[in-house]
Design brief:
single chain, alpha+beta, Trna Endonuclease, Chain: A, domain 1, two-stranded antiparallel ribbon, 6 helices, globular
């Protein structure tokens, strides 16, 4: 590859990164946090990860409609999906946190029913790489795209701690 082509590719990558919406940047940072701290390499094999903003920009990869990760629990061998969502604690008019849209909720529930179990990890705070609060719940326990604190409190999880296999499979 010529130096001009390499330079051109570098400029394009830099431009894409600079034009990436802030919500995508924060989402990707939180996904990194989830992989590092909640579902670490030592306990969970990564089977699938959805494509990032730049990969999907212009040529959308259909598998990106799946949850962010598909893992295999090294202890049990069970496979499951995880959708990571970062929120800065924004409540709607009804004092709920909207964690996804209706279409996403239906899609995650269908995957949970027809393929593999789906878990949702919500992160809250100022910085996605250092959340102040974590919530972890199975999609089967959730019927709404906006949640009250009472639901979130029920599934509160430790910050910077991995989820143990036994705990994960007992969540209802």
């Amino acid at each position: 590859m010529s130096i001009i082509k390499k330079f051109s590719k570098g400029i394009k990558a830099l431009t894409n990164e600079l034009n990436k919406p802030d919500s995508f940047v924060k989402g990707e940072e939180f996904e990194e946090y989830v992989r590092k701290f909640i579902f670490p390499i030592s306990d969970y094999d990564l089977i699938h990860k959805t494509h990032d903003f730049n990969s999907n920009n212009g040529d959308y990869v259909e598998s990106s409609l799946k949850p962010d990760f598909k893992f295999r629990d090294k202890k049990s061998g069970k496979e499951f999906y995880v959708e990571a969502k970062w929120r800065s604690g924004v409540y709607n008019r009804e004092n709920k946190i909207e964690w996804c849209n209706e279409k996403q909720l239906r899609r995650y529930k269908a995957i949970d029913k027809n393929e593999n179990k789906v878990y949702i990890v919500l992160g809250f705070g100022d910085k996605p790489i250092k959340p102040e609060e974590i919530v972890l719940f199975p999609i089967s326990s959730c019927n709404y795209n906006a949640l009250f604190d009472s639901f979130l409190d029920k599934y509160s999880f430790y910050v910077n701690k991995p989820v143990f296999s036994e705990y994960l499979w007992k969540l209802k």
